[in-house]
Write the structure tokens for this entry.
Amino acid sequence: MSTIKEYVAARKAVIAEEIKARPRAPRLSILQVNDNPASNAYVNGKMRDAKELGVEATLLSFPTTISEEELLSEIRRLNDDESVDGIIVQLPLPRHIQEEAVKWTVDPKKDVDGFHPCTTFEPCTPKGIVEYLSSVGFPFVGKNAVVLGRSNIVGKPMAKMLLARSCNVTVLHSKTSEEDKAFYLAHADLIVVAIGKMHYLDSRFTYKKDAIIVDVGINRGEDGKLHGDALPGLPVALQTPVPGGVGLLTRLALMENVMEASKK
Ligand code: NAP
């Protein structure tokens, strides 16, 4: 079984070849309205991936004083620009700009993050996870899948995509009792944890020994390093690492969506 790094490298090589064979490079516009270090790191990662694969990515940085209307008209301009295939707006946004208004303004045909309610794309994190699980032969149909977290960008679309593949899906959240969590986790063939609580899944829970744990969480520990929502080394068949796990799958899925957008 290949590691996530090997899997991503192999997929990237295929995408790069496909892009080379096309009459023109896919074009992605990234809008950033903040200057926080985590966002800068995400944007730099996306710009690096784009360069590596032959996607023409443009970063448009705006001061945090930009008004909501100015940002929306910038998005509309890119919606109307036929040379732009994909648009992403890096989160978070300043408080005076409504995230929903921004998500609803991006043309669903260019919404490569998959955030618009009528988007034609799958959101990158769940898409990357499902494609990776398929690549390792996870059988999906009739398997017990537990999704911890119900956010709009990870938990909910993840649950929907697993249900579409005929998993028996249970979504747990902050109002689920510890006792119920222990029950569902003990019966899970697949656990996707996306709650933003460092090492929340640990040895106080029991797991099926052939279970897969997909760790979406990204938490900065007191050691200054990044840690997942699951303690490394749990007694399961496969546990994705943090860093070097779901983050890479998410970035890969974004590039796949950009490719797809350029075909539309
Ligand atoms: P979010 O919007 O903060 O939502 C967190 C979810 O976790 C909520 O649904 C919350 O429940 C639930 N939750 C919180 N504490 C819980 C607990 N003790 N037990 C069970 N559920 C609990 O989170 P998000 O945006 O989905 O992100 C989650 C984590 O994934 C973060 O660490 C984020 O940085 C990371 N992330 C990583 C990637 C990647 O590419 N690797 C992508 C996106 C996000 P309620 O709804 O009841 O409040």
